[in-house]
């Protein structure tokens, strides 16, 4: 039985459309407020048509029977031509409830029930329906037109494929969701701890692998080489040591330094540029009050030379442009001390400061002239005639220059023979530095075709590279007799040679000709960035006469502070200890004839080697003060301040003290060596530079060890007193014996005369 529900329009193809005001609150599940939440423009939705029975009139709507007309047939003949995919297959199996007609809620699919399968739920929003009109998705997925969008809004297509960010998120999600990933607080803490330990281990491993200085250097061998200017000829490897003999002799005694005629030569003109920072005011004051002005630094040990040797040596501090809050302070410091040079660059270390310094020196560097006559006339170089008025003097400038400045007509200043670059953590002994540079200034250069400069840069580190023919003449210096040689400007590159490649940056010197070329060469101008000491060595290789550049190295008397603990570190060294070191390993420079013949057959005669077939002995790098890579500790506790400084002297009794030793600190202090004995009664010949003086306390220790101290210690004075007393006693005893002898002679004479008289009496 069918129940007529109402009348439908005569035409089925045109469904009736209701507007918003035709909906009743009770006619469906959606409230009357729903349209107002959507959009100001409402798209009309057609009322859901009911399927008419075949037995009922066409103008009546009836509830379908058990076997109604299939929905697919209806849609197949419907004018909209919509496919039957949008209708659930079970929609016709459920009869409609007997209630009044009501519109289908807009959020339900047309002709579908709540029991639709997943296939119908997954239909795209683009599916059209004759009942719903224009398809619309949820409001949060609608492509609304925003204020920043122009033109017709277009639907953004979803990008296909995976971006790197999406892959990263998926990878992190997989890691986090892994069963082994920590999720509890205690496991998270332990995991972070293990990762931290692993990171530290990897960092230390990389530092160890990349660190080229893994073993202490054999400084004792450096101080025992045949020539103090060719210690780079010794090369150490794991399997042994290769040593180049200086001459074809089984035994060779190296010449001593300084040469006997050193003080007879005119002093060298030296400008020392101390690289400093605008904030390092205290360090500059330490330099001014110690090695830049101290008499023992400028005159040498013992009685010195009155400052004649360093009368042409001046010290200046090199700074970049100071910071804004320190500019006024630096200006006042310049006006007070007259020893600061500000370069027109920003402050840096490896970005062109060294090149800017040499450029400034080529234009404005001048040093004092010769103030006294020597037995040897001053040399005549190409730059000797360049003069300038005296610069403002600093308080630590040479005494002779300050005395000349008060005259009405002071002597003009001249170009320096050497320009030295050093750091403010280097303690420099001026007299020692000037003596060695003076030797190089007047030394005969080797032949150009046998120069050592090209041979010092051999790629192999296990073979000595300097040939006998390239060795300089022994330091018994004789000025060149040929006037033509004086016109050849010296080209000297002096310092501490590192791995046969460059001079270490704590101090190196360039002769004036090299400085002038560096400032004007266009190729060098493009090579200003990088490690400054390595860059300077590369400049020397670019010189048009690179084979004529003399590389001179000083390995024995340039070292790091004893407390530094680096590969270059050992105790404060003096000539007396260096002599004992030479005597202890002098056997290294003596070989049997069989060994020499063997190496003459396997190698070129110009690179003959002596080989010590044993691993590098630890004694060659042994120091009585410091140990490589170990923090320094005093030998025994409770030392006084002066005793602790004495314990930093290499080879001293104080440095050899240990717990339980029978020798006490008081005995070691009393029997220490005085300055005269340590310098072996010579003015120079000791430490040139102590580097890596990073702390002010270390600086004061170095100043006391190298600049202070008595000429003779208490034990030496007492020994001298004992010698005088012994001499007096000997003289007194000799006088007493002489008086006794004379008395005996008188007695004997008197006795003899009386016996003669007695004999004469008996004869009578």
From TrEMBL:
It is found in: Golgi apparatus membrane. This is Glycosyltransferase family 31 protein. The keyword Flavoprotein does not apply. It is a single-pass type II membrane protein. It comes from Neolentinus lepideus HHB14362 ss-1. The chain crosses the membrane at residues 188-210. One of its GO terms (cellular component) is Golgi membrane. Residues 25-49, 110-119 have a biased composition (Low complexity).
